[in-house]
Design brief:
Blueprint: H1 10-29, E1 33-36, E2 39-42, H2 48-62, H3 64-90, H4 100-107, H5 111-139, H6 144-168, H7 177-194, H8 196-210
Antiparallel strand pairs: 1-2
Helix pairs in contact: 1-2, 1-3, 2-3, 2-5, 2-6, 2-7, 2-8, 3-4, 3-5, 5-6, 6-7
């Protein structure tokens, strides 16, 4: 007989698919620079914060262990996408192909930036999930809004503190990096605050539909225990 604890629901699977799509879309959108007033940003800001919102929903409803599986799945799918993109970029184009420069701009991610992105994503996502999990236990399930915002601040801060120095040190002036990192955290957290009413409704609907509201009492937070769900 199969152990239901080692199975995932259809809704969790759908959230996982959306999570992976958001990460891959963020990679593509990062190649465009956009401006919001005087602030320069990348297009990835449109979708990347959604991955943190999904992380919060999964951790709140299904618990840290499911969130851990979600994060590693997202990492694997994103790594696969970046890898096949780089391979295709490296293969010489056909004689009639005239868009090498455009394709390279989107898929020719520098190894340094790719590595920084992967490490920052893992650390930021796990920090977000851990803070969310521990705060839920300490608050006895209350104050979801506060937990979602605080976990995002910690997660996005860890992400920015790792990504920007690793990826852009020597490219962006050192005195500009702190403000660049700060704006990323502020804007991504503001994004979460704006959509928080929707997030709350989604969490309530998931708990009702799934009949789940997991508290991570006594679990092992080891990030490598991927299949311990």
């Amino acid at each position: 007989m199969k152990n239901k604890k080692n199975q995932v629901s259809v809704l969790f699977m759908l959230f996982s698919i959306l999570f992976c799509v958001c990460l891959i879309a963020a990679n593509l959108l990062e190649t465009k620079q956009i401006a919001v007033g005087p602030i320069s940003l990348t297009g990835g800001l449109i979708v990347f914060p959604v991955s943190y919102i999904i992380n919060d929903c999964v951790c709140e409803v299904w618990g840290y262990r499911k969130a851990r599986l979600l994060i590693w799945t997202g990492f694997a799918m994103n790594f696969f996408f970046v890898t096949v993109g780089a391979i295709c970029d490296a293969i010489p184009g056909a004689d009639y192909w005239t868009n090498d420069a455009g394709f390279h701009a989107v898929f020719g991610l520098a190894p340094r930036i790719a590595a920084a992105s992967f490490v920052a994503f893992l650390v930021g996502s796990f920090v977000n999930a851990y803070v969310m999990s521990r705060m839920k236990i300490r608050s006895k399930g209350k104050h979801f809004s506060l937990r979602a915002i605080v976990s995002t601040i910690f997660g996005e801060s860890a992400d920015s503190l790792i990504f920007f120095p690793l990826a852009l040190s020597g490219v962006v002036p050192a005195e500009e990096l702190p403000m660049l990192m700060l704006w990323q955290v502020i804007l991504k957290t503001a994004y979460e605050v704006v959509v928080l009413p929707i997030t709350i409704r989604i969490v309530h609907a998931l708990k009702s539909k799934e009949g789940e509201d997991v508290y991570d009492e006594g679990i092992n937070y080891n990030v490598l225990k991927i299949f311990s769900i």
